[in-house]
Amino acid sequence: MSQEKVHLPSKFIQSYLLSVSKHPFSEDEKHVLYRLVECFQLDKEEQNKDFILRKNTNGYVEIILSLKEGENFIQTKKAIYNLQKRMIQHEDGERLIRFPFIYYMGIDKNTNDIHLLLRREIYEVLLHLPHVNQKKELEAVISFRSIYARHFYELIKGKNKPITYNIEKIRTVLELGNKYMKMNNFLARVVEQAKKELDQNAPYSFVYELDYENKHNPQGGKKKVIGITITPVYQPEQLSNIPSGQKISQQYRDDVERDSIRIVLDSVYKFSGKELEKLTNSVLMNGGHSYLTQLLQSCKGNIEKAIEKLKQLS
Q1: Where are the domains of the chain?
Q2: Is it the case that residue 264 has pLDDT exceeding 60?
Q3: Domain Initiator Rep protein WH1 spans what residues (predicted)?
């Protein structure tokens, strides 16, 4: 029996992917979705990319993804498993059609590259979202430089009432682990950074208030922060200010280069902490990977000599 090519109505697939249902997408599932949209946009613009996309003649699109720095492999894998369980179904007077959102997944255990196979209809829907506001909203989320802006956006999107978390819970929700344990760092590097991006680029942002411990502090000074109350703020006017796909693509390439340089400086040259961040900026200003290549050549492959010159650069 030959395989029949069936084209589902794009509005049906789009409504399934982007509407709120009894089983909404988890944050990790949405992150995979955003990555796919990002890949499709970059491929359309024929930009340099760290993924492979192939379209075959059988109605499927193959994507090979490499995880970005900071993306959790186990969480991403679990999200893809869950997306495979999500079935898209369409029935009319002639036939019933049912297939998974992600048709196939494979993982290269040597590189952790993820191989995905999607039906062409899903690819076309994500590439050509017909509703302007939905497309702009996806572009907004993709454009966030901070992963925490994306986390906060998922918390507040579509809500209008204050949400209160204790500090342990909000840290868990934001997947901070052992990062930014000091309250000042948490507020400056996570909360304020996310709020700044949402204020500038997203249709939803927030204001917040800190909740303090009622106990008297015998040592004086400020009371201990035990919680945070987040109040969503809807700002639809920002839909017209979301960066264009071209700007997103440039920003994406800049982020990829920054992350890859940071990895080289960390794994090869053993820099860390503030020195690593400062040196990453200096290397970028001096030519990025081209500078690192010329530096190593000038040192005749001697890592120790290269490290000394990098220290002078910082």
Answers
A1: 10-130, 143-234, 245-313
A2: yes
A3: 16-157
